[in-house]
Amino acid sequence: MKTRVLVVDPDERAAADLADRLARSGYEVGLAATGRAALTSWEDADLVVLDLGLPDVDGLEVCAQIRGRGATPVITLTSGDTELDRVLSLQAGADDCLIKPYGYRELVARMRAVLRRTAAPRTTAVLSHGALRIDPRGRQVRVGDRSVALTRKEFDLLYLLASLPQTVVSRRDLMAKVWADEWSVSSRTVDTHVSSLRGKLGPGDWIVTVRGIGYRLGTGAHPEAPEDGGD
Predict the structure, then answer these.
(1) What's the CATH number where 47 sits?
(2) Considering the entire predicted model, what is its pTM?
(3) What is the domain extent for residue 134?
(4) Percentages helix, strand, coil for the chain, rounded to the nearest 5?
(5) Domain-terminating residue out of 119, 136, 165
(6) How far is CA 47 from its chain centroid?
(7) Alpha-carbon gap, residue 147 to 168, rounded angstroms
């Protein structure tokens, strides 16, 4: 089955050109010229390429609404060439952000990377560690009787740690396995996601910091001081 891509771009000529190139690369392509059109058609896509310069709805708001309603990955296209432009896209829920003008080969490479890292885990085994239960098929997490809502990357990060319960996973490995392209992610991004995860999982040592190395899954029993990773 072909990967379905929704291209959201108010520039009909540019959108048609991109759609043609993607189709020749083996993708099934849909087009939307407005934010409202995107919000009524994104659910049929496997990936959304979203130009933020929309005429009716703020592109960041469209991105946030897609992210709030489902797990379809989004790559944003922005004319702003500043760190803030990229940060705002990522905060709105984008999986990646490209600065215009961009190269077609780079876009396709990023699409493939995003699709790889957002694919469902190959195993469907439910992981249980004490009160923590992780269901990869439904991408659901529970702590005791409480359901925990996580973003895609928070889920992937937690699932990776839970898959290796006795292992300290380095920040570099987390960047490579959860974000797939570690060169574009900083260790601070990992730390921020871990902090958010801890807050959502609630009291306990569900994620333990090992100084100088990375993180490991804890027991949830009680908060622990960071461990020393040694020399």
Answers:
(1) 3.40.50.2300
(2) 0.57
(3) 127-220
(4) 40, 20, 35
(5) 119
(6) 12
(7) 26
